[in-house]
Amino acid sequence: MVYQPIYHNLHSVATCLAENFDKVNSCPLSDLSINIRGELTRDGNSILQSLKCNQTFTFTLNVQDVNVVNKRCDEVKLYGVDSSSLKEAFTKFESNCSRVSKLSLNWDNPWNSSEVDWGCSAGGVLAKFVSLATLSLSFNDYGGWKEGILGGLWSGVAQNTSITTLSITVNSYRVEAPGEWIPALWDSLNRNTSITTLSITWNIYCGMDTDWKSALYCGLKENTSVTALSITENIYCDMYGDDYDAVWWGGSEVNASLSTLSIVVNNYKNIRGVWVVGTPRGLEDNMSITTLNISVNNCDASTSADLTQSDAPQADSNDRCAPLPYTSAENVEKVPSVEKSPSAVPVTNVSKKPLDNQSKMPTQEMLEDLFPGEKSRIHHHDICDAGCTFSREEISRKLEANKGKKKEKLFNHAWLCKADIAYCAASGYWWPVFVEGEGVYCILCKKHNVHSTQNKQEKFSAEPSVRFKSSALVRHLNSRTHNEVIQLEHTQRGSIFQREVSNRKAAEAKTIECVMRNLYFLMKEEISNRKAAHLNELVALQGGEEIKYFQHRSQRVQKEMMLALGDAVCNSFLPDAQAARCFGLLIDDLTDIAVQEQMICFIQYVDKKASKHTKFLFTTNLLSGESSSANSPTIKAAVLQGLENKSLDTRKFASVCTDGASVMTGEQNGLAGLLRRDFPAILTFHCVCHRLALATVDTSKEDDVKYIDNVHNCLRQVWQLLENSPKKMATFIKIQANVNTVQLSAKGKKAVATKLQKACKTRWLSFEASVKSVKKCIYPLLLALKELESESATAGGLYKKMYSGYFLGTLYLLGEVLPILSTLSKTFQKGELSYAHIKGSIGYAKAQLNQLLEEAKKTEFIKNLTADLRNGPLSATNIELTQSDERRLANLKVKYVTSLIQNIDKRFSKCQDIFSAFKVFHPGLIPRKEHSDFKSYGEADVMLLAKHFFSNDVDQFMAEWHRFKFDLIDFQGDMEFSLRQLCHSQKQYPLLSEVAEICYSAPVTNAWPERGASAVKPIKTSLRSLLKDDMLNVLLQVSINGPTLADADSIIQDATKHWLNDKSRYKLKRVNQPRQPPKENAELPRAAFFSAATQTDIVIDLNKEAEEEEQSKEQEAEMIVAESLGLAGEDCTEQNISDEDSGLDSVSEDEF
Questions:
Q1: For 59, which DSSP code?
Q2: What values do phi and psi take at 505, rounded to 5?
Q3: Where is this region: Disordered (predicted)?
Q4: What are φ and ψ of residue 11, in 5° steps?
């Protein structure tokens, strides 16, 4: 039973309870709540004190003690607690803290209580509860809040470890600091570890002070127990957009326990303005919330709130009203004509449709141009509705003006929406524009800058009208001046040139984006930019008619657009590279078609998601400056300058990979040595692909296997012999086709025939490809060389070398060995290769080579050759394989494979100790926890890493390693997996994760710069040899880093926006000189029809050439107009008369 008596009958209620107490004890009563507000009389107080609680329910009141007499105390409810009884009320049930499971507290005017009461009584008792599971708090605020007043209460909540459900209800009846209870609440929740469900209900009966907002941003950042949060706001007062901001959710982006979030806002009054209740701040990064409910219930029809995203631009403080749909001439009858008295309009700020909206109506563009910088003070039908009111400043100014004897009539905002006053049917415009602090303008009269033909006044055009009467507005609508302006407007609209300019303006964005897409296609496909004009013509012929409006056709503009595309591609990854904690560079040099020494540079980094990326960064001509040689100082200066141009922090420069040239890898004067002087901790790598190629070349040059090098030279000479002579190539193809008994045309035979591959020592896979092609067509090749012997001594010499069993046996030997090296080289060329893969790949290749030396496979290639010579494809050659050849081939195989393994070990064993120390991150090498070596595992390697990278934090680095070992042993994967996990653990292991990122981002292969060098060749050809560094850079950016055309929409849009913002715009000056409209039936001078370059308010984009031509035509037209109007040349120059002022049509120059 809940009874809330009024003040004058408290005594009778107490008497009634006392008389019927026996009946209460006999009924199955489990819950009795009495809420008494006010003072009790002495008799009523005595009667209530006589009540004894002998139920399972414990009744507690300001004047009532708790007496349970060995009964269980399940629930306690305190009602009517105020400052006079706060301490006393808590002490009455403090002895029952070990038995109460549910506590409900209701306070009136909590601000009257002292901080001592809250800290020593409320907070102290709450902290002692050990059985309390549900706490319900209710505050009735009639007098405001004092800062920190509830600190003791929330401190008790924070210390309690049994509360699981917390419910808070706040009734705010005063505007002073209504949110002062919030900061300490959030702080206590961050320290509490038991509360799982939090419910907050806020009933707002007054305005809100915004000082408390920032306190909510801390939110539940550090809380780890709350899983469900429910917030309900009931708004019973008028509020404005700048007074309200739903920021309850701040901090939820880092909270990891919250799974259910519900926010309900019930609006029972009038809310005007931008109501930011969109996507909650911080939820973008939250990873724990699974259920989200945000409800906004407008329970009052007068609400005109604009629901926007929280990250949307905020409305200006002077913006006023929510927009109605755009009203055109077709629906003019639907416009409401509600008229409100200005005196009844409240002083308020409500939202207004912004003038910078993307979907602007023509009137809005005109308002921007006619009233620049005054969008917060203007009122017009297209940006206001019938409920729009003036700003506070305007209302205050009017009220101040009306204090005098002469009352000033206010402008009625409702007139702007009345069709019989504000709509001009002849022109289709809503013509009145009210500017606060000035008066009323006519949008048409101001556009054409006219004045009255009778009194020469410029009211409604250059000067505002301050006669605020509906009759005055109707009079202007029907005036002769306004009708003359309508004629000028109709004349201007009928202009062919005007329509063409309007169409061009409407299609401008789409046209530029279309041209950008065409240029991107050319850049991606490595096609000359001179084809852009032809490609645009092709698009126009296939239906893209808008592209004809594109006027920027000069080479300069085309270059700027291509530079914008390249910058957009670069900016798509550069911010991630700049945000990375470290990065590595891949550097190589090349000579282009213009015989310029180009250095090409790639960057490798790890993003926030621990994913590795390799991107082209820049290329530069090393000899473009003062340096005369591409030596190591020049390369170093170019590298550092390139990093500075890309805004990359050189302190994050952690590793570099180059080829094996001494200018790159030299420890003293090479690039590696110079960089190590400035960056002592930098890691320098010699490309593993180049190492493998050098190991292969070194093997073939040894005396014991010198014949391998002879075979290599022989294959290269055969390729040169046939490649450089069409006649010899035709002979070879013809013989090959005849041997294969294929009857084809000459073109078909050439297509079917196997083409020999060039054997080149500088190309990693060319030797294996050459051996494979020659082995496949060895018999036709021998026949061709035999036939060409009579006319070519080279062919005869090659025939003698190749026509032997030992040569064929060597080809079969290389056919077994080279595929193993080719597979290893392809593995090293993979873009995702890291240090973790090198050792395993080399070990697997060496194991395969060792298998070739086993007895079972040592002579297997000889058996295959013998079988082919007897009954296989080589039986027609009549070549015999002697036993001597077999012994020599067997020895050659052993020596070649053995030497190859030794050279691989030699090339890859020369590795810095710091590289070998990275193996400690491999989860497969760490021993088990119970093993004796687990405690000391990795001590030496980790100490080496600590001294190399963090010499001042060695102890912290070692401590992180000792903790990480217990995580590493649980990882199941390779070394790359453990490195990625470490990169994700920056908070737990700040130093160790940085070393892991250095290792993971360190490049070990120069395959990417080699691909970049290959991309330069089709871009900078003999026909494009004059490409400068800036154009070459953007072309490589798009060719290498750019996405496919289908996925490049975001790149093209960014480039278009960038180009439009940076492109210089040429706009002829607007002339504000008033112009007298023509008289009725008067013949207009033909000279006035010549140029309409500025007759509209649309910016016409012109390049420099077009601008100069237009200016010259404009000057001629001005002279003709001046002569026709009887003006002198100087007067014409001073007045600068243009067709924008006259509003007349235009004709072509020939027609003139």
A1: E
A2: -65, -40
A3: 332-358, 1105-1152
A4: -65, -40
Please compute the mean of the pLDDT values over residues 599-606 and round it to a whole number.
94
Residue 681: how many CB atoms within 10 A of its CB? 15
Q: For residue range 496-544, what is the model confidence (pLDDT) as tens digits? A: 555 666 666 666 777 888 889 999 999 999 898 888 888 888 888 887 7
Query: Which sign, positive or negative, has the C-alpha torsion 374, 379, 383, 388?
Result: positive
Residue with tokens 């210089």, as numbered in its chain:
1064
Beta bridge partners of 984: none
Output phi, psi for 1074, to 5 deg.
Answer: -65, 150
Domain residues of the chain, as ranges? 74-298, 364-396+407-493, 554-684+1005-1040, 693-825+833-910, 923-1000
The backbone torsions φ and ψ at residue 264, rounded to the nearest 5 degrees and listed phi first, read: -125, 125
Residue 2 main-chain phi, psi, to 5 deg: -120, 120
**193 CB contacts (<8 Å, ≥6 apart)?**
161, 224, 225
Could you report the per-residue pLDDT of 23-59, keeping only the tens digit for each?
Answer: 544 444 444 555 554 444 444 444 444 443 333 333 3
Phi-psi region of 672 (alpha: psi -120 to 50; beta: other; left: phi over 0): alpha
Helix (H) or strand (E) holding 603: strand 597-606
Q: What single-letter amino acid sits at 140?
A: N
pLDDT tens by residue, 711-739: 888 988 988 888 888 888 888 888 888 87
Which of 305, 170, 304 shows the shortest CA–CA distance to 233?
Answer: 170
Computed from CA positions of residues 1097, 1101, 1103, 1109, in that sequence, does the dihedral angle turn out positive or negative?
negative
Phi and psi at 40, nearest 5°, equal -85, 145
Edge to edge, the sheet with strand 260-267 lists 58-59, 75-81, 102-108, 134-141, 165-172, 197-204, 228-235, 260-267, 291-298
* Residue 1036's pLDDT band (cuts 50, 70, 90): very high
CA neighbor of 317 nearest in space, from 238, 241, 209 = 241
Q: Spell out a b/e string for 232-250, using b for 16 or more CB atoms within 10 Å of the CB, else e.
A: bbbbbbebbbeebbbbbbb
Question: For 445-479, how does the pLDDT look when each residue is reduced to its tens digit (9 = 90+)?
Answer: 888 877 776 656 778 888 888 888 888 888 888 88
* Encoded amino acid at 251, one letter: G
Q: What is the pLDDT of residue 582?
A: 93
List the structure tokens of 583: 């990065």
CA distance 674 to 682: 11
Going across the sheet that includes 597-606, the strands are 612-621, 597-606, 583-591, 653-658, 683-686
Backbone angles phi, psi at 214, to 5 degrees: -65, -25
Alpha-carbon dihedral angle through residues 8, 9, 15, 20, given to the nearest 10 degrees: -160
d(CA 238, CA 42): 43
Query: pLDDT tens digits for 76-105?
Result: 666 555 544 555 666 655 665 666 778 887
Burial label, 734 (beta-carbon count in 10 A; 0-12, 13-18, 19+) = middle
The CATH label, of 1.10.287, 3.30.420, 3.10.450, 3.90.105, for the domain at 554-684+1005-1040 is 3.30.420
Q: Which two tokens stand for residue 125?
A: 């008792």
**Rounded CA separation 30/245 (Å):** 43
Topology (CATH level 3) of domain 74-298: 3.80.10
With a CB cutoff of 8 Å and minimum separation 6, the contacts of 763 are: none
Which pTM does this prediction carry?
0.53
pLDDT at 920: 87
Do residues 986 and 993 lie in contact, with contact meaning Cβ atoms separated by under 8 Å? Answer: yes
Which tokens sit at 1002? 């360190």
Can you tell me the distance from the alpha carbon of 590 to that of 1017, in angstroms, rounded to the nearest whole number?
A: 10
Mean pLDDT of the chain: 72
597-606/583-591 β-pairing = antiparallel
1102-1111: average pLDDT = 50
State the helix-helix crossing angle for 42-49 and 10-19, rounded to 10 degrees: 30
